[in-house]
Structure formats: structure tokens, C-alpha cells
Amino acid sequence: MGSFQAPPGMRSSALLETSCGYLLQELQMIWNEVGEDQSEREKVLLELEQECLEVYRRKVDRANMSRARLHQELAESEAEFTHLLLSLGERSLPGRPEKMSGTIKQQLDSITPALREMRLRKEERVNQFRAVQGQIQKISAEIAGQSEYDDSITNVKVNENDLSLKKLEEYQNELQRLHNEKNNRLQQVEKYIASVHNLSATLGMESSMIITKVHPSLNELCGISKNISDSILAKLNSTVESLQEEKQKRLEKLHQLGKALKNLWSLMDTSYGDRYLFSHVIDQLSVSSAEVSDPGSLTLDIIQQAEAEVKRLDQLKASKMKELFLKKQNELEEICNKSHMEIPSRSEMENILNLINTGEIDYAELLMSIDEQISRAKEEASSRKSIMEKVEKWILARDEERWLEEYSMDENRYSVSRGAHRNLRRAERARVTVNKIPALVDSLIAKTKSWEEERRKVFLYDEVPLLAMLEEYNLSRQEREEEKQRQRIKKVQSQVVVEQENFTTSRPSTSNRRLSNKSLNGGFGNASPLNRRLSLSIQQLGSNGKNSVSLGTSFIKEGKKEQGKRIFPRPNFTSQLRDDTASVVSTFSGPLSP
């Protein structure tokens, strides 16, 4: 059988006891040899025992302290491991059991590799956080406009209590947002700088000086990163707006100068060569501020040159203004004369000419005023056109009426002579025209009244009211007609008396003489039917006016027919009566014939 193998601890204790026993026996042998008394021996043994106990106690305390330290290390390691798990946002470490067993040292040996790995993970995570946060701080400083920023990673403070991937993702999202904002700001800065370049080129300014004045970092020659802070963006925006306002002001100024040049060119009849020198100014009249982008198109030199040209033409304009005014005055008078309208007074025109000579009048307002007068005159002439056409017809009809009156008074109008047949045809046409005069006058009066009501002014024809002319014409025409009727009545009466006297003297018989005397002495009361009808015709002519003329003429014809049947014919008397009757019929062929 094999011998019993004691544990290492038991073997150490047995060896210690054996060694102590040998030493005690050797001490007893020494005491026996020396002859040490018993009390002294017991005292030494007691001391040895106490010293041994003290040594054991120290060893035990040291062992307890070592155990406690190991427990502390284990607890700290577990706490650190747990804290790392929590800070990293992980539940556990793959490959490590959640519950540990074995001695303290075994547990320590088990947790130490996991703890080391977690520490490495923490360090790596912290570096990630530091890098992300460093970028965030740097971009934030750029956005804030901080010219000096220490981008050292050691200055970044990382919250090691929260190193989870979720928190890291939040920082990364924030970093991405800042990157986007930075890019947007850079794009805005570049856009503003491009606008400054374009506007400066259009206005003829130095863009680099303007940009450097906003901030030196915006100038690419400086070689530093651009400042993209809110204040810089605001300054750039203000600079662009001020340049745009200056551009708008210059363009408006150029528009004014261009319009002035066009007016002056038109006024002065400037040659094409002189106009071509400022064609670029005229080209800007039809464009807006946003459409002007050509370099140097709105420089101060161009504006000053245009101003100098306008000033030069203004000095020449006064000499030709009088000529132009007289030309437009003639145009106005021509319009007024053509439409028989009232012409502006000569005294007013002379006053304007005096003002032109002294230079105490605004030429633009003067031209505008006379152009407005011409426009109003044209408009009024257009509104008078239909009335004036009828007035012209009325005037022509009056001329025909006067000619017809003169023709009717000509006793030789029926004679056989050269041109008599043409006069007869003209007389027929004139009678047709004259017959239309009443309707023409009535229409003219109605149109004139309507025109006056609409315009609220009197219609003047050569400074005379047209309605007054028409009414005076109607009145004079009526008076002429009445006078003609009275003359015709007298003529008819005298003819009848002469015919009856001739008739009675031509009959030798007593009965006829008695009949003639009775007719003459007894008046028209006991006369023949012919005489009674003539008497009635005369009365009607005197009382009924126009219509009685044609009625009296018909009675005259009828009476002459009856007389021709009852009395023997007389060639001379018959031909003379026929001529007179034709004259009366031709003269009173119309209700208003002269």
C-alpha cells in the first residue's frame, strides 16, 4: 500500500511541530546541562509559546488582510466591469459567464481579461467621442466666427459616463448637421461673393477691396478659411443689397438720361453718328435692373458722359425751342382752321415766346402743354367731323340756293342761247339740293345740340355759335319766303286785273261790256268761277305760307284752263300766260324753293 499523502498545509504544520519538538528537546538538554531551575524553564517556555502565538497571529492577520485585499480587488474589478458595461451601453461581454465560481484569485484571474478588453473598448470609444466632439467644437467655432481655435484633442472633454453607441450616434448626427450648415453657409458666402463680383463688374468697382472690407478671410489671397459666421453673412447680404441699390439708382439715372437724350435728339434732329455714341444708353431703357449684367454697363464714367451730353443738348435746345414751338403752334392753328374751331389767342402765344427767349419757362412742360392742346384739338376735331361734314353740305346747298334765286330772277333764262340747257339741268339739280335743306338743317341742329350737351360747351363755327347761325338762317329763309309770297301774290293780282281788262276791251257787245263792268265794279263776289278761285288762292297764299304757294299755283292753272274753254283763244295772251305759269311753277316747285 502506498503511504498517506497529506495536503501541503498539513505537511507544513507537522514539519513545524517536529522542528519545534527537536528544538525544545535540545533546549531541555541545554537546561539540564546548565542546571536551570524549573521556574526559569517554565518562564522561558511561556515566552516561547507567546512568541509563537504572536507569530501565528501576525501571519493570520496578514492572511486576512491579503484576503480582504483580494476581495476588494475582485469587487472593484466587478464594479469597474459593470460600470464599463453601463457606460458603453452593453449588457454583457461575449464569452464571459455572468456568475463566477472558484477562489478569489481564480475569480480575479477570470475577470481580469474581460476587464482589460472592456478598458480597451472604452479607450477606443472615448477616442471616437473625442474625435466627433472635436469636430463639432471646431465647426461650431467656425460658424460662431471665432478666428482663433485650438483644435487639440486634449481640450475636448468627454463624458465617460455615457459612451453608448446611441450617444455617439447623436454626436455624429449633430456633426453631420453642422457639416451641412457649414456647407450651406459656404455656399451662401460663395453666392454673395459671386454677386459682389458681378455687381462690382457692372458698376465698375474693385470687388476685392469690397470683399476684404467685409472680412479679410473672404479674400482667397489671404489663404485662410473663410469666416462663415452670422455677422459675416449679414454684412455680405448688406453689401450685396447696397450694391443692388446703387445699381438700381444708376439704372434709373441712366433711364432718365436716356429719355432726355431721346427727347433732345428728336427735338434737335441729331444725326445718327452723334446718336450712335450713346446707343448703349438707349439700349438700357427697355431693360430692368435684373437684366443688366454686362461688365462696365453702369459705370460712373458712362453716367457722367450721358449727363454732359444732356447738358450740352440742353444748352442748344433753347435756340431751337422757339422754332419748334412755332411749328407746333402752326400745327394747332391748322387743326383749328380746318375744323373752324377757336384758335388760341395771339397775346398768349406771344407771352410764351417771350418766356422762351428769356429762358424762364420749363421746356418739357411747355411741349407737354402744347402737345396736350394739339391732342385735345384733334380729339375735338374728330368729334366735330360728322357735324362739319353736314355744315359743308349746308354751305354748298346755300350756294346752290343763292344761284337758283339769281337764276330764277333772270328773265332770259328760257331764251335759246349757248349754255341755257346746262343751266336748266343745273337748276333741276339745285332744286333737288335746295329741297333737302330743311331736313339737313334739322339734322344739323339736332346733332349740334347733342354735341353741346355732351361736351357742355357751345359749338362754334369760326368763333360764331353754329346754332345761332342755323336759327338765323331759318329765320331769314322764312322772311325771304314770306316776301316772295307777297311779291307773287301782287304779281298774280296784277296779272289777273290786266287779263280781265284786256278781255273786256276785246268784246264790242253791250252785254259783254256790261258783264266786264259788273265784274270790275262788283269785285270778286259776283265774278266767274275762275275769279272766285283766284280770290280764294290769294287768301290762302296770304294765310298758309309755304303750302299755299303750290295750292295757289294749281288754282291758277285750273282757272286758265276753264277760261280757255269758255273764251275764244288769243295766241299772244295764251303764250304769255303759259310762260308766267311755268315761271311760277318752276319757282315754287318745292316747299322751300327760293
TrEMBL record:
InterPro entries: MAP65_Ase1_PRC1
Hydrolase as UniProt keyword: no
Biased composition (Polar residues): 502-520
Protein name listed in UniProt: 65-kDa microtubule-associated protein 8
Positions of region (Disordered): 500-526
PANTHER family, A to Z: 65-KDA MICROTUBULE-ASSOCIATED PROTEIN 8, PROTEIN REGULATOR OF CYTOKINESIS 1 PRC1-RELATED
A Pfam family annotated for this UniProt entry: MAP65_ASE1
Main subcellular location: cytoplasm
Keywords from the UniProt entry: Coiled coil, Cytoplasm, Cytoskeleton, Microtubule
Compartmental location: Cytoplasm, Cytoskeleton
